[in-house]
Write the structure tokens for this entry.
Amino acid sequence: MGFMDTAALDAMQATAQTYFADGLRDGYYRGWFASDSARRIVAGGGIGIIPCPPRPEFPYARRAMIYNLYVEPDFRRRGVAWRLMEIMITWCRQQGYPWVHLNASDFGRPLYEQMGFKPTSEMGLELEEGQPPHRLATSFTV
């Protein structure tokens, strides 16, 4: 996805190895791979099961989140990503999840939109190290 900071990527990889090993063992991550005729892995994707507080529009305590969909460049535009997505979505349905979420890269967005994914109201704020919060209070009186 164009991220080139090797120190940050190395740190991410070290943490990711633990996350995926623990997640596969403990059941909060599930992964799928696609292979070519020589049995080389050419694509993969996974689903993380995330505990979350329920909301009126989503009254469930867990949500399924698709992560890490990747297809090797020589195998793109052959339906591999579409098929992996179908498999993962089917798994979510079989597990009883009424929704599946993902964060889309610009490159992947057209695929997800074709499959019916819609933008949500979710937003994010990067919490930069050393940056004080706008306001800090543990309690207050009005």
Remarks:
- The longest helix spans residues 6-26.
- The helical segments are 6-26, 80-94, 109-114.
- Residues 6 and 53 are 35 Å apart (CA to CA).
